[in-house]
Amino acid sequence: MLSRTAENLYWLARYVERAEYLARTIDATLRVTALPAAYIGKTNEWDSALLTAGVAASFYQQYQEANETNVVDYLSFSADNPSSIRNCIEAARLNSRSVRTALTSEMWDTINSAWIELQAVWSKGTSTREDLAKFLRFVQETSLRFDGSAYRTMLRNDAYWFSRMGVHLERADNTARILDVKYHVLLPEEEHVGGPLDFYQWSSILRSVSALTAYHWVYRETLKPWLIADLLILNDTLPRSLASCYGNLVRNLDQIGVAYGRQGPAQRHARGIRNRLEHSNMNDIFQHGVHEFIQEFIADNSRLGEIITRQYLI
Amino acid sequence: MAVAFDEMNIPGGDLRPAYQELARWLKETPPEALEYRRQEAELLFRRIGITFAVYGEAESTERLIPFDVIPRIMSGKEWALLEKGLKQRVRALNMFLRDIYHGRDILRAEVVPDDLIFQNPVFRPEMNGQQVPHDVYVHIAGIDIVRVDANDFIVLEDNARTPSGVSYMLENREIMMRLFPDLFARHRVAPVERYPDELLAALRSVAPQSASGEPTVALLTPGVYNSAYYEHSFLADKLGIELVEGRDLIVKNNEVFMRTTEGLKRVDVIYRRVDDDFLDPLTFRPDSVLGVPGLMSAYAAGNITLANAVGTGIADDKAIYSYMPDIVKFYLGEEPILKNVPTWRCREPKDLAYVLDNLNDLVVKEVHGSGGYGMLIGPAATKATIEAFREKLKREPEGFIAQPTLALSTCPTCTASGLAPRHVDLRPFVLTGSRRTTIVPGGLTRVALKEGSLVVNSSQGGGTKDTWILDE
């Protein structure tokens, strides 16, 4: 297939995934900031939201401080923020148009009708909390529909695999970013001071990766920070864990390798990351520092993105 | 201006046979039902994304072309005549191009004056002596046809470069069949859906000799911001070929390749929807980023077929248009089946005198103009405009042609105040491959939605209709 087509499919999937993640982040932040101050402490959750979205620097060039109004606007509707939900959806639609021949009609319909629907939101914004909640739900549902229609209607060939790689690479990045921003509330020392304050922080983290229910099913335990870290990093049954993302990335890259009859640096690099995750346990990770581990992962993950681009997309 | 030919009603109250069933159906169908289907059609167009871009409009860069749900109908007999005429015309266009870029018999015979060719900016000296496979230059032609009476088809314009609109022909039919199954059950409408297959077969048949047994065809688009982008992606999809942009292609050793995830892959035939000027920055406009550097040298080496060929503009130029009847006669020795709009060439003193005497009634066009710019519409112009134009005309008569204002035929059309006649034209698509010329029965009917308007262009309030050829 054309390199440009593969590139568009890959980025299309990334943009949709990112839009969903941003919607979840805003959703989770709204919930936690709605609690009385005594439950969440003094941290500015809107600041955290900006950090996990990776746009804090550009935000503060424009604003003095982060609050609900300006962060929600910046993450959702801003035309200046290249990774706002709005720009993700716009970019997803543009990418879809460029690769219409490689999309199934169901995938195109999902993106195009969401884009049409959201034009009204861009021009009017959301005036009430209810509107905002509806908007955030709509974005998440769009991503689910897109994913579902890709899963149910695409031929299982390189087009599908490149699209899935976009999903998993973006997802791994998002999960890692939450951990990066919130790692301090997951440190074992906090165990003893784990009052109601941390409980809400923890449930907020899980909610932003849609893993709150999953946690209880996996551990049958009250919320414990090291188990949350375990779930998000090492548990490959959770679709948004780093381990699961890398299981999938390695599989997709292998499928492409087999189909094309050759492998390259992308396959090797992805396998390297997966092996490291497979052979880690939380004890070691905490001992060597969660923060360092996560930072290294984020760098490795983005390197994989570059390698895939060089090997296939240009 | 004469009274327009009504395609449905015979003066006196009778219906033309092709429209009888439709008229009966319209009588049974309440107006609300029509309006409801119209809205449904619009929704479908928007969801499928059948849009076109309007340049220079910041507000919305994508717009829908209004679709009228009342079909335009022709009898099989009428179509048979039109089809014959179209094949004849396109055959002549191809022979003319072959001649112009090789022996130039027609110039020596003084049927067409030299300067109209050699001083014409769309003449491509790069094509002199260049062999194109099977001598086909115009693989895809869109011939704009109008009717002014029951007996004649008149060619308004030959489009021999990169004619567009065929996606509307196909999508209009799809949507009509979805919305009006009952109406189709009552008519025998000739299908149009094999167009993509015919097109692919035609394109493959003209692959260069150096191509492999299964030639690779690609569609070259200027990209997602082009006004006809939807059509490009639609056709690539229906043909099952790659939709490429200039940056996807690379020329090595005079062969053309596309960049794929598995490395370079050779391309043999390019269905290009990029104009000559932008095809190759090394040969034509150096600032073009839409093209492929070196494409023309691969073309000269005979390793790639471009459809349509480079330089076909010389055949559909306004200055050449008026010679088309003579061109048909010269190459085929036949009387042209399709008529031309009577055209006065202001370069000829006799014609100029007539035009100057009748400016009030004529449409005067710049030979090299397009899109209605630099045009005088006599009946609609003020005295001052006409006088100003008169001076321009006297100064540079060879730059102009003049035509009478035509009363385009009308078809019943949905309007705010119910069904009413509106003016229409027709663009059928003529495909030429190595061995045969084919036309799917139908084409794109454009309709001027404003009352009395003769302008069918989508940028100026025109819409489209499904075109039915009845299989009798």
From TrEMBL, chain A:
It comes from the Bacteria. Residues 1-313 form the DUF403 domain. This is A alpha-helical domain with a conserved ER moti. It comes from Bradyrhizobium neotropicale.
From TrEMBL, chain B:
Gene3D superfamilies: 3.30.1490.270, 3.40.50.11290. Residues 71-448 form the Circularly permuted ATP-grasp type domain. It comes from the Bacteria. Transmembrane segments: none annotated. This is Circularly permuted ATP-grasp type 2 domain-containing protein. It comes from Bradyrhizobium neotropicale.
